[in-house]
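Folding Problem: From Residues to Backbone Shape
Fields: amino acid sequence; protein backbone structure tokens
RECORD BEGINS BELOW THIS LINE
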Amino acid sequence: MKIPSATRALNACLKPLTNFEAAERITTSAYLRSLVVVGDQSAGKTPLLQSLTDIPFPVADRLCTRFPTRIVSRRTPDRSELTKISIEPSVLDWAGVFVSDENLEARDQRLDAYKDFAYSSSNITADGFKQATEKAKELMDIKRPVSTKEGAPTVGNRNFASDVLKVEISGPDRSYFSILDVPGVFQSLTKGLTTAEKDGVRNMVASYMMPEHSVIICVANGTNDLANQATFDMASKYDPRLQRKIGVITKCDITQHQDQAVLHAVKI
């Protein structure tokens, strides 16, 4: 498989921040510097992830990312590509902020179900990936419509989860990297969302920005005022010397004043 040019471009940008040559001599993700993709709601993170990883992430009209997704890529001597998907329980202390009236017994039952969840494919398709993510939502008890009809009732008890969907991709032409995608930060509450969830998502994003080994990729919608996009300020708080933050401006093709958007991005 030919690796997307965006992946090669990203690797080139990250050379000063990471040591990919050293990474090629190891086989575990523990030593790979993590790239954390953050952005406000509807900033355009999903198309970026698709171009970087060649994984057919599903795109929804409303909130799409309901839980962290970690993509671990490795180069292997095998001739064929392999994609494996599993669920990692969260180890974050504040995870309970997303849980509504859940007791420990129900939590233990869900963790047992995680152990039985596994997806593996040598040729992952959009439908296959969507089925895996929908099953993950079910196991995480994420709210979801019972049908595709508009206004259909939902099942599930929560809007977000802190457990991590882990996607491992390997093949002879793959690069070494670890990318973590987190739910988008949102400022206003839409129907069905709570203040606790809004604060919880912000806490989640901040917790992944904080570690010094994290490279923060801030994704901003070029059609909106960048000064009003919260994740840029959050990233600057945890990386005040701007040593591990990279800005990505999306939707530039539909921005009315492209030159002003670029200048504003450089200033930020």
The first strand starts at residue 34 and ends at 39.
